[in-house]
């Protein structure tokens, strides 16, 4: 019997496909949950109940049982709801899917149809550069007559070296979706929203990019995995950049809200002024894709914030450290087997969802900015602060390369 | 990169570039130009110059073309406002100019570069940095890497780089002088329009160099 050999190339190829499916699947799975929690948090903040009608009840389990056993569940217990309102996103999706598709007569058909796609595609592509877990080492093994050769699998779909820069570059193209949709609708209000969105996103990309640069300069690498490892190697595993560069983290956080068009910066979607926003003329699934792209962009930005400022997938040190004479073994190491990787992915997900929760929470806490306030904050406050922070960081790094506060 | 991909992306770039000048609708023209710029980014990825590709997409795609689209949207040209077809003399001049530019670019590019890339001793450097306890110096320098690009830009091409910066600054100053004419616009409107455009042009132009 000739032995079948799995070379690193073959394993890597399969792993890339699986990772891509995992990343897109995760992003698309988080969106419905995100919509549910958005509504629930809104209700909580405003002392309402929120969605509580569409859900499974304990009685639903009866349909899984044989007919003779259905009476086991008493009527009172059968009415108890399992997570009240949890199926609301599904109901929304079904509603959107069955809506009539209306294309305005004055619309530019090509751009009108391109709009939703151009919102989603850049975000989906940018997710590929996000490092979401520790490096997986597949050891030499022999399983059922199949020889497996040692392979190193990085836990990001694409691991080109300036990966973080690629991520920023690709995600900056998201504005075209809004611009095309708004302009292509052939209607005044979407157009105004698109103009606002373009100006706002371009303006806030400046402080966002500079805060990004501060993080990259503090670490000294453009590689996502390297950024995470550096944070885990400093300060006994807690040299997260949010502690080392708090101002940059704050600037990034604020600019992140503006980039995602979230409150308090949701001027492109200000309903009282613009009817609906850049998606006023959209119905059905095209509107749904706008929605999906927007939420995926939020997930992307939260993942980026986690990677840059919250230590990414690391939790504590990634190599043994000495504290007060005793050695502490790392919980998650930089490279390792499947358990290590799963744990690191879980840590990353929890951190990312925490930032997402913050985003949802702030939306229902702060009122909307006025347009001139928005521009003033971006150009007169955030950009100079970010530039000053970058200059100080650069000077400190070049003068004291081993200065532990920054590096 | 395989020849097939070069030809495919190259064809895409040529078609998109042609559409940029033939489309009547300014937004369609701007988006065609975006495709052409993105195609150049793809070619750079094929040459393993990932940093340059990221810069190409970030600055041209994410900044300059957004401003083009932004301005076109602000003007919202209708079909009758696009103006008459340019006279044939203008077209002829444009064609001659384009050919001359092609010739200049081609002759500049076909000249062999006199700075050869020398692969530095990465492992020794990284070991030295780690011995000093400097964890920030582990990145490898290879052809097309960020380090290589920065080294070439700030040593061999430092003077052209600085000259382009001055040129961009002059353009920014010119924009402010033109936009700040008090009789044509109110101060508020000028502020709103000039501030993102001017600052963006500065950063974008600097990076394009």
Describe the structure.
The complex is a heterodimer of chains A (407) and B (209). Chain A has 407 residues and is mainly α. Chain A contains 14 helices and 10 strands. In chain A, strands 1-6-5 form a 3-stranded mixed β-sheet. In chain A, strands 7-4-10 form a 3-stranded mixed β-sheet. In chain A, strand 8 (321-323) and strand 9 (326-328) form a beta hairpin. With 209 residues, chain B is mostly helical. Chain B has a domain at 1-78: Four Helix Bundle (Hemerythrin (Met), subunit A) (Up-down Bundle). Helix content of chain B is 73%, strand content 0%. Chain B contains 8 helices and no strands. In chain B, 17% of the residues are buried. The chains are: A mainly alpha (407), B mainly alpha (209). Chains A and B meet through helix 5, helix 6, helix 7, helix 8 and helix 14 of A and helix 2, helix 3 and helix 8 of B.
């Amino acid at each position: 019997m000739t032995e079948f050999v799995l070379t690193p190339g073959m394993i890597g190829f399969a792993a890339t496909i699986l990772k891509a499916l995992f990343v897109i699947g995760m992003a698309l799975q988080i969106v419905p949950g995100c919509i549910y929690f958005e509504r629930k948090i809104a209700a909580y903040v405003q002392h309402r109940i929120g969605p509580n009608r569409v859900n499974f009840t304990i009685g639903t389990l009866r349909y899984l049982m044989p007919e003779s056993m259905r009476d086991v569940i008493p009527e009172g217990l059968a009415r108890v709801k399992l997570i009240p309102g949890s199926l609301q996103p599904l109901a929304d999706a079904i509603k959107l899917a069955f809506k009539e598709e209306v294309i305005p007569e004055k619309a530019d058909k090509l751009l009108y149809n391109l709009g939703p796609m151009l919102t989603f595609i850049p975000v989906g592509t940018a997710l590929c550069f996000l490092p979401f877990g520790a490096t997986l080492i597949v050891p030499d093994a022999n399983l059922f007559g199949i020889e497996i050769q040692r392979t190193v699998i990085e836990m990001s779909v694409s691991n080109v070296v300036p990966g973080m820069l690629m991520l920023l570059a690709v995600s900056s193209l998201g504005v075209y979706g809004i611009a095309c949709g708004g302009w292509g609708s052939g209607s005044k209000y979407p157009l105004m929203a698109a103009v606002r969105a373009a100006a706002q996103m371009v303006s806030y990309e400046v402080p966002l990019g500079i805060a990004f640069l501060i993080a990259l300069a503090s670490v000294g690498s453009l590689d996502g995995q390297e950024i995470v490892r550096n944070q885990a190697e400093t300060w006994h595993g807690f040299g997260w950049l949010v502690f080392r560069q708090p101002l940059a983290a704050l600037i990034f956080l604020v600019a992140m809200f503006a980039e995602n068009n979230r409150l308090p910066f949701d001027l492109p979607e200000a309903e009282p002024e613009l009817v609906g926003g850049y998606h006023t003329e959209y119905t059905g699934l095209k509107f749904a894709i706008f929605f999906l792209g927007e939420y995926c962009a939020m997930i992307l930005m939260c993942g980026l914030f986690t990677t840059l400022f919250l230590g990414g997938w690391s939790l504590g040190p990634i190599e043994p450290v000495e504290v007060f004479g005793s050695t502490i073994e790392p919980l998650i190491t930089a490279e390792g087997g499947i358990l290590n990787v799963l744990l690191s992915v879980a840590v990353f997900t929890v951190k990312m969802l925490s930032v997402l929760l913050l985003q949802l929470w702030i939306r229902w806490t702060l009122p909307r900015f006025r347009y001139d306030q928005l521009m003033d904050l971006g150009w007169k406050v955030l950009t100079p602060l970010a530039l000053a922070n970058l200059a100080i960081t650069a000077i400190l790094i070049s003068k004291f390369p081993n200065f532990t506060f920054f590096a | 990169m395989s020849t097939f991909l070069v030809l495919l992306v190259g064809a895409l770039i040529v078609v998109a570039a042609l559409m940029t000048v033939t489309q009547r609708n300014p937004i369609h023209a701007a988006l065609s130009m975006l495709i052409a710029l993105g195609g150049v980014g793809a070619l750079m990825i094929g040459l393993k110059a990932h940093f340059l590709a990221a810069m190409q997409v970030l600055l041209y795609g994410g900044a300059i073309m957004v401003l083009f689209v932004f301005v076109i949207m602000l003007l919202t040209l209708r079909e009758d406002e696009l103006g008459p077809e340019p006279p044939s003399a203008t077209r002829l001049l444009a064609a001659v100019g384009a050919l001359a530019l092609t010739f200049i670019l081609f002759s500049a590019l076909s000249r062999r570069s006199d700075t050869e890339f020398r692969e530095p001793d990465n492992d020794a450097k990284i070991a030295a940095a780690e011995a000093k306890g400097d964890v920030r110096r582990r990145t490898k320098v290879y052809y097309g890497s960020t380090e290589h690009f920065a080294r070439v830009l700030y040593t061999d091409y430092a003077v052209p780089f600085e000259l382009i910066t001055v040129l961009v600054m002059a353009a920014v100053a010119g924009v402010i002088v033109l936009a700040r004419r008090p009789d044509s616009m109110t101060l508020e409107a000028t502020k709103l329009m000039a501030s993102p455009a001017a600052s963006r042009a500065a950063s974008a132009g600097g990076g394009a160099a």
